[in-house]
Amino acid sequence: MNRGFLGYDASFMLDVVVCALILLVPLLVYSIWLVKYRHKYGKHKVAQLLMGLLLLTAVGLFEIDMQLHGGWKNIINKDPAAPRMSTAELADVSQILRIHLIFAISTPILWIWTTYEALRRFPDPIKPGPYSKRHKTLAWLSTIDLVLTSITGLIFYYYAFIA
């Protein structure tokens, strides 16, 4: 199996996902800044749609990669004759992964819901309206969820491939 490009013994797609997680948070902050302080609703919409596409593409390719490698445990322990982690260590990393998956599963659901509702309820051209308050609530939930997805994903990556 191939090494990732970050220099650790992860797969290429795991490294892509890690980079996407790192990149998405500042892009999200920029998108929020655009709408909150600059009132650039159209640019905020484009930024959100591009980030959503980036996230879904990265996750989709990552899932394909997981299937090709037979799962994350096979990526960690590429050589069964000389495993990098013991069963106990894999169990610890598995606990971290379970926490990460709570956020990793809820994030796209929240983001798609928030985006769908915004596309449906905001006029074109976009301007604040009766739906704005609910959108803001959903958007902040999505933002918090994405940040927690990123943090827990990076923690998983650290313990699985760096520590």
TrEMBL record:
It holds the Pfam family DUF420. The chain crosses the membrane at residues 12-34, 46-64, 96-116, 137-160. Keywords: Membrane, Transmembrane, Transmembrane helix. It comes from the Bacteria. The keyword Zinc-finger does not apply. The keyword Transport does not apply. InterPro entries: DUF420. This is DUF420 domain-containing protein.
